[in-house]
Amino acid sequence: MIMKKTLFILCSIIFIGFTACKNDSSKSSENAIAYYCPMECEGDKTYDEPGSCPVCKMDLIPVETGDKSERRSDEISDLSIFNLKSTWTNQNGEDLQFEDLKGDVLVTVMIYTSCKAACPRLVADMRNIEERLSKSTKENVKMILVSIDPNVDTPERLKAFAEENFMDKHPWLFLRSSEDNTREFAAVVAVNYMKISPIDFSHSNIITVFNDQGEMVFQQEGLGVNSDATIENIEKAVASIK
Amino acid sequence: MRTKFFRLSFVLIFVHMFSFGQSEDMVRINGARYIPLYGRDSTVVEVKDFDLDKYPVTNEQYMEFVRKFPEWQKSNAKKIFADGMYLRNWKNNFELNDGADLKSPVTYVSWFAAKAYCDCQGKRLPTMDEWEYAAMADETTKDARIKKSYNEKILSWYEAPRSNENQIGQNPKNYWGVYDLHGLVWEWTSDFNSVLLSGESRKDKDGDNNLFCGSASLGATDLMNYAAFMRYAFRGSIKANFAIKNLGFRCAKDIETP
C-alpha cells in the first residue's frame, strides 16, 4: 500500500517536473501526419510519409494537423513582428498583440511621455510623416508610439498624452507592455535604451516601417531628418497590400 | 506507519522544491552597490543578491533544449529571432560539426534564443550590471578591476583566437565560484541593448548627437579599463538576432524571498 502511494507521489513529482517547461512545446513536428513539398510542385498534394518531392527532389515538410487550411492563409513569415507573442495595452486600456494589427502598414517609434529632450521632436517627425500621407494611404496605416517607460506610462497617462497632442484618433496608437516585452520589442527594431535617472531615458531615435505582413521594410534613424524616404516606403508598402 | 508515510512524502516534496529552487549548477552572488565601468554614466548601481550559472550553457545542454522546443532547432528558428548564422557550427538539428565539442559553450546563438533557453529553465539572462559585477572578481577578490594582472589576463584572452572551441570549466573559478566569465566566450545579457555609443565611437560622422535622446551615450574618454570598454562597445554594436561565433550565454535567477 505504502509502496503504491509512494510510487504515485514519485510519478506525480516527475510529471510536474516534465510539465514545468511546457509553454510552447505543443507544436512538436511529431504531431505531423502529412507531408508536403515546400515548393508545392504538385499543388496541395500531401504524402503520408516523409521523403522527397518526386518533382524537385526537395525534402518534404510536415504539415501540422488540424490547422492545415488555416496555416495557408494565416502564415506569418519568418521575419514578421507578428511572431512576437507579447501582449500590449493601448491608450484605451485594451489588450492586443501585434498580430491583431495585421493588414495595415505599421510605423513605429519608441518614446516616453515624460521625455523633454528628443521625444517631442520624434513625435513631431511622426506627425510630419502622418500629415504628408495621402488620405487613402492613411486608411491603411497605423502610426504607433511604443512606450519605453511602462512604469510611468500607464494607459491613462498615454491617453492624456494622446489627447493633449490631438493624437487620440486614427491612425495614432499608443502601446505599453511589461519591461521585458518592451526590451524584446526594442531588440527587434534595434532601438537601444537605458534608464539614466528615475524619470529619464537615453534612447536611439529610430522610426520603423513594417509592411502589412509585419516585416520591417524601412528604418529612419536620427532626429529632424528628411522624411521623404520614409514616406516613399510607407506609400510603397500600402500599395502592395493585397 | 501512517506518519512514516506522511513524513516520506514531505521529504519528497521538500527535495523536489529544493531542486527547483536552487540548482546545484548555480552559485549565489551576494549583491552590493558598485560603479560599473562605462555603465550608467559612472553612477552607482545596486545589484541585488542573485544566483548565476557556474558555467556557460554548453552545446550538449542546448541540444537537449532544442529537442524539447522544436521551434529553436537549427532548421526551424525564425529569421527575425536568429539570423542565418544560427548554430552555424552544428551539422543539423541534433549533430555538431566534426571537431566541435559537446562540452564547449554553445555559440552562434541569438539573444532571443538565449532568452528562450533561460525562460524554459525557469531562469532569465543576467542583466548587464549583474554580469559585470560577477565578472569583476578574480580568483581571490570581489573587485579586482584595479589589479594589473586582472586586466592583462582578460586582454590577453581577447587576443587569443578560437577560445570558443575550448571546453567549459578549464579556467580557474572566480571568487564567487563562477567559471569562464572571462577566457572562453563573450556572453549575452538581458539588457545588452541598453548600451548607447556616442556617434563618433561607432559611426564615422561628426556631431551625430541626433541619434540619441539624452546625454548618457558612451564617451570613451577613460580607457583605464579597456577590456570593459570593449565589452560595452561590442554590446552596443550587435543586434538581438545576431548569432556570433564567440558569443554564448549563461542564465541567472532571482532569489525567492521567503
Give structural notes.
The complex is a heterodimer of chains A (242) and B (258). With 242 residues, chain A is an alpha+beta fold. Chain A has two domains: 29-73, no CATH class; 81-239, Glutaredoxin (3-Layer(aba) Sandwich), CATH 3.40.30. Helix content of chain A is 31%, strand content 22%. Chain A is built from seven helices and twelve strands. In chain A, the strands form three sheets. Chain A has a seven-stranded mixed β-sheet with strand order 5-4-8-7-6-11-12, sandwiched between helices. Mean pLDDT of chain A is 80; it is low at 11-32 and 65-73. Chain B is of the alpha+beta class and 258 residues long. Chain B has one domain (24-254): paralog of FGE (formylglycine-generating enzyme) (Alpha-Beta Complex), CATH 3.90.1580. Helix content of chain B is 29%, strand content 11%. Chain B is built from seven helices and ten strands. Chain B has helices at residues 2-21, 59-68, 111-120, 128-135, 148-159, 199-202, 226-237; strands spanning 26-29, 32-34, 45-47, 50-53, 90-92, 95-96, 186-187, 212-213, 247-248, 252-254. In chain B, the strands form four sheets. A three-stranded antiparallel β-sheet of chain B has the order 1-4-10, with no helix packed on it. Chain B has a two-stranded antiparallel sheet with strand order 2-3. In chain B, β5 (90-92) and β6 (95-96) form a beta hairpin. Mean pLDDT of chain B is 82; it is low at 12-21, 198-211 and 213-223. β10 (200-204) of chain A pairs antiparallel with β8 (212-213) of chain B.
